[in-house]
Design goal:
By secondary structure, the protein is mainly alpha-helical. Helices cover 54% and strands 10% of the residues. The structure holds zinc ion (ZN).
Length: 342
């Protein structure tokens, strides 16, 4: 038989033994079936429990023990823990979906040129390896390509001192690296009928450079893979670099970035007294209506049909000299002669 007395603390006496004192502030409610109040005490042995069935006693305990409900792991507390876990996962997802793109948008224009160039050089090694290190090197062709790039860069108001190259691969594509290098792939050059078609494509890539779209993509994908790496405990710089390099070549930009790059093509070609329409025609010829989703310049929104329509709307008869002479164009077309194809 247990007797309870309410003194300065709760006095619990059992079968005539000396009473045990539970300070009211130390008493906590434990889990119990309905109709029963079960309490423990912080200063008592951990398994000690007092069970109260009497309603009057229970209300007396509730009245005196102000901290009765603290530290209870009940359904509500478990719900809270689950809620916080969900919130933590959700916040990572939110960071990936919103914060990283936002940060990439804000950061990309602020990245120093020298750093951008270093990133470009680091990924260039990977990318050349990806295409079997087949750089087209016929001197006359290289001179023609350099001349074309010089004119385009000047019209685009971009630095002039960056080398660009043609790679001997049948993939019909072109891409730019952070820092300014623009690569043209033989597959696209082979399908081109005149310098304006190629010039428009290169101007589009210069647009991506000018708007830091490539750097933005790197920060975005780098940030995402970093976070995913954190989740799965695998953050390796070299993997990130290889991944980023591939991503530079294969991924497409946002629809808005593509449209802005096309605007650069229109501006640059008009500045040079040429039409942007041939670029639309080349891409339409290569991809058809839908576009091949696997190639960045071609996968890009807007669909090549919409692009051709836009470029046609900007078509003017040439008011400037041809960008390359017939001889230079022939040299450019033959820039990969003698380089093994991949
Ligand atoms: Zn593009």
């Amino acid at each position: 038989m247990v007797k309870l007395a309410f003194a300065h603390a709760l006095e619990i006496s059992e079968d005539g033994a000396a009473p045990v004192l539970w300070a009211y502030d130390d008493i906590r409610q434990a889990d119990s079936p309905a109709g029963l109040l079960r309490v423990s005490c912080l200063s008592a042995p951990p398994l000690a429990r007092l069970e109260i069935r009497d309603a009057a006693l229970e209300s007396e305990i509730r009245l005196r023990c102000a901290r009765l409900g603290e530290n209870r792991i009940d359904g509500r507390a478990i719900g809270k823990i689950v809620g916080w876990s969900v919130a933590a996962v959700a916040s990572i997802v939110l960071v990936v979906l919103f914060a990283i793109p936002l940060a990439a948008d804000r950061l990309a224009p602020l990245v120093p040129k020298s750093f951008e160039r270093r990133v470009g050089e680091a990924s260039e090694v990977q990318i050349k390896a990806l295409f079997g290190n087949r750089v087209c090197n016929r001197a006359a062709g290289q001179a023609a390509y350099a001349k074309l790039m010089r004119k385009l860069r000047k019209a685009a108001d971009l630095d002039n001192d960056v080398e660009s190259a043609v790679l001997a691969t049948d993939v019909p594509n072109a891409f730019a690296l952070p820092g300014g290098k623009v690569y043209l792939l033989r597959g696209l050059l082979a399908k081109a009928d005149n310098p304006d078609e190629i010039a428009g494509v290169l101007a589009h890539e210069l647009g991506h450079l000018k708007h830091h779209d490539n750097m933005r993509g790197l920060i975005y994908n780098g940030g995402t893979s970093f976070l995913i790496g954190l989740l799965f405990g695998d953050v390796t710089g070299s993997n990130a670099l290889i991944f980023a390099s591939r991503q530079l070549v294969t991924s497409s930009h946002s629809r808005e970035a593509e449209q802005n790059a096309d605007t650069m093509t229109i501006d640059v070609m008009h500045k040079l007294g040429r039409s942007p329409k041939p670029m639309g025609e080349l891409l339409y010829r290569v991809t058809g209506k839908e576009g091949d989703k696997n190639l960045s310049i071609l996968a890009s929104h807007p669909l090549t049909e919409d692009r051709l329509q836009r470029m046609s709307g900007e078509d003017h008869p040439p008011s400037g000299p041809p960008l390359l002479s017939d001889k230079e164009w022939a040299a450019l077309k033959g820039i990969c002669d003698g380089v093994a194809k991949k």
